[in-house]
Design brief:
Number of helices: 43
Oligomer: single chain
Shape: elongated
Length: 1258
Amino acid sequence: MVHLHPVRSGPASTMHSPTHTHVDTASVLSRSIPTKSDISVENTNGDVPKVELVQDDLADPRPFKFRPVELASLLDPKNLDALEALGGINGLLEGLGTDGSKGLTLTHTPDNRSGAGVGASQRHDRQPLSVPAPHDRAEIEVADNPHSALMEDRRRVFGENVLPQRTSKSLLALMWLALQDKVLVLLSIAAVVSLALGLFQDFGTPQPAGEPPVDWVEGVAIMIAVLIVVVVGSINDWQKERQFKTLNEKKEERGVKVIRNGIEHLEVVVGDVALLEPGEIVPCDGIFLTGHNVRCDESAATGESDAIKKASYANCVSLKQTLSGVHAEGGALGGEHVSTHTDCFVVSGSKVLEGVGSYLVVAVGTKSFNGRIMMALRTETEHTPLQLKLNVLAELIAKIGSLAGIFLFSTLMIRFIVQLATGSPARSADQNGMAFVQILIISVTLVVVAVPEGLPLAVTLALAFATKRMTKENLLVRVLGSCETMANSSVICTDKTGTLTRNVMSVVAGSVGIHAKFVRKLEDNQARTNANRSPSPHRNSDSTDPRDDFSIDQSMLNTVLSRPLLSLFNAAIAVNSTAFEDVEKESGERVFVGSKTETALLTFAKELGWADYKETRDTARVVQMIPFSSERKAMGAVVKTEHGYRFYVKGASEILTKLCNSHVVVEQHGNSHSNAQSDDVEVAEIDGSSEENISRTIIFYANQTLRTIALCYRDFSSWPPPGMQAIAIDEVPYDVIAQDLTLIGIVGIEDPLRDGVREAVADCRKAGIAVKMCTGDNVLTARSIATQCGIYTAGGIIMEGPVFRQLDQAQMLEIVPRLQVLARSSPNDKKILVEKLRTLGEIVAVTGDGTNDGPALKTAHVGFSMGITGTEVAKEASDIILMDDNFSSIVKAIMWGRCVNDAVRKFLQFQISTNVTAVVITSVTAIASNSETSALSAVQLLWINIIMDTFAALALATDPASPALLDRKPDKQTAPLFSVDMYKQILLQSVYQITVILLFHFLGIKILGLEETSGNDTIVQTLVFNAFVFAQISNSVNSRRLDRKLNIFEGMLNNWYFIVITLIEIGVQVVIVFIGGAAFQVTRIGGPEWGISLALGFVSIPLGALIRLLPNGPFERLFILMRLLPKPQGDLPKTRPDGEWNSAIELVRDNLATFANLRGGRLRSSSFVVKSRQARLHEDKRVPLPSLMTMVPTLIASSIGAGWAPQSRGSLSDPARFDPSKSSAALWEGRLQIHPDTKPDDALYRTKWGFGNRPSAV
């Protein structure tokens, strides 16, 4: 006999990859492939990896009956029909050569290769990514029987449970990549040319007496600037990669147990029968076989926040037939809903919450859901919008500089030829040769002067400074360029579960008794209570009057509960529960483990400071436990008390409340003193009014998509109760004792918003950024969360993924701008949405924490992942990691991104004006000079172009971010790098500086009233140099603002870098004038000359204020004429008004007022009714009803519309406004919902989508 035992297989966690090699299989494998004959792996999207296709084509599937793509497609998306087409679970077991209970039976001794077993994982022993050579079928010996297949056959056909390893880029490789930047290439060329000419001037030509050979310094200085940029940038990238690697090493190890024939194996392969245990992270895909009460949390993989129950294939088919109205014998699951909450598919990356079971492994490694997404993320980093614009600018500067150099060279050569022809001045052949070389040198110098040497340094310093500050703000920037890309993001597509919400089910609202309505953070969630807004101070004697209802913040609940009631409430939670508290491995924090409902209740009690659950549970003398049953929708516990026995029960509120005949009493100002000293809990009978109050509360919470749980109790004097027949003391039937209960309270449970999310979304809107939610969760929950955090607003649309993916390209492009919530979306839906937004010219950021967010994170311009709860797939795909998992940190990223962009543009405004001035002065003075010499010497230009620019780059790149940066809209991707205000400053500041410098250069002697001597000429040139430098210093201060506001000193005291650097520049300039002497061709000047040069330089500041006051219109037309700005696109608006429609699918009103047309049981023959009867569904294919639960709120709301609703008494918070029935029917029919606050005259209703669906006038 062969003895079977579970073999522990080691961690099988996927690796992170610092570099990117694009392998995207998700798009192909996400299609449903029912039979082998229907398989198609052709490259339909253009991004399907050739490696995967070649492997699938060349790998011989024999002796197995299925190819990897068939098995993988069963789970992405989950497809029961495809599983049926493959022969069901029995067909899979037979085709893979395994047994459902014994697992693989190995008849051959496998090799000892290390795989995902003990001591091995996907973290090491990876194989290089390669394509196997085609196998010659004649040479391959394969058995026809899959049961006798070798392990090598399984590895060959289905792959191993490892991911191909990629080598990280070395520091030298990162430096080489940094050198590919076009601006740096231009600078490198300029440096080589400048160095060559400088060396020739210094050592190839005779030097005037007293002048040091310094012409070579400029070329060396440019090279140093390039080196600084390359080193700083590459080291920054390298450090960020190492930080990410350290972060990723903290990820949770994944283990797996497999059942084999008694021989230990260090590998899990397709065909293995693996075991599921609580707390396990599933490492590979599979089909559930058998087990007990297995529930998985798939939120990290699919975004579904509810636990998914795992059932056998036979049970799932039976349930499917039952839901379809077909009678099926056997295999029922007690009437539970299948839909999205029960299935037989085990998805890699999901977590087992409870239960034990086994599953058949059908996909491992790169073929699994988790592995395919990881491989899809390996793409090369794109150029950021700013990088692209700077590359264009570099090419433009190179062209303009070259043209200026050619113009100067041509002009000087014409004069040189005329001089040769006329013989004046008289020069020897050597002198003529040197004159020609001097012309060439001055022309090349002009080109070098035109190049903005400090630009790449400014970008690098701004990014390095920002990323360092962002790290302190809990933002780990993996890709340096993503920082500035975030500045102009116009759309953020965010996941719901774990990103907007905490991914922890919590009690967010409830009712103790029937009157005390508590709400978590009541001040921010007034709509969560259905109590009167302002209770009457003169309370009615009738205690059941609805005016007795009052609202209270959840944190203040203890103030209205008596001590006996508080103790009762706590015991009802702690004793009647199987959840427990444990230490989480990753964070080290104590968390509750168990079903999400029970952990939510225990957390609720702990937050309120009630007695410790374990002490309460341990002291309770439990007589009988009644486990949860899907039939009765409840669970209970009987305990012995001092006065007898007490039965605690909790479960579905709509069921338990009907079994209650009394409720506990809670008053707004606490219970009366007479009862306060008693150990008894005050109760009151449930009359008609109380029953209505309870029903109203349940409906109110249901409309907000809260999961409502009722907690009740009943006291008995003896056990078993008198007159009850029981086999044993702990086997009293539930139905016998679950009656005449006392209601303690009703709680509403949901996955609540993270702190600060609502404010973050508001900040994003203020900054002109649209926020869209993409989630795998159901549409009702998605809408509730989107409404709470402010994403779903007037004019917005909600759509489900299955509807969205059926639209054609044109329809998608019309829908996307107004789409605010995409529910039940697959990973591919999210990726398509991002692609369509990019097609529309939007700069897209995506946030997410789950595996299902990976493709969209990588497709976006900027991807954000969560550092604590984020999966390794999400972190690998992201550019920025939110270390505190706070969505509001994105607002800080936007601020710092805009700070970087502004820093670069500030520097450009300063640098270009400096370069334009230097180029014009050099050209004019060289042409005017007989000796082809410039007004500014080579060393003076070195100080201005290199040192000053470097200092300015550092000063302007270190301005800190401020909330004021969120007060403007983002720039479009096609927006020019320079604005009209920037061009105005560059033009007029340059004109002023050129005028002053040329005026004093040519007429300085006369203006100062000096005699024409060489000494006085040096004084004038010193004054010119001094005035030019101080004009640049003043202009750097002026460049701190890019808008039309006049206060250029705002925030300067917060930037000590700027102050210190400016003082250093002033100090060095003073030293140069006093002791620079021959090296800088200057001399000491007196007080009047200092005063004039300082005054001329300082004029740049008031001149900047005057320029800001000038109207932009004439200048804009001038710059468009000069082709510095693009022409406006006709009469089309540049921005989209909020109320304007970009086109959407039709809206169908679920008008509850229809019931008002009832008369004598018949509908009046109104035009509305006739029109409704004649209406037809859209021609598009209907989407099947996703879940029966979708209809429940519709039926409830229809009751309200028929006149039952208590809202006529004014006690509800406008439930119709957020009523799920508004969209349930439309979404069921494959349509969408438009926000109820959308204006009736919205352009939507003038489109084919909205025709005939205009809301009724009120």
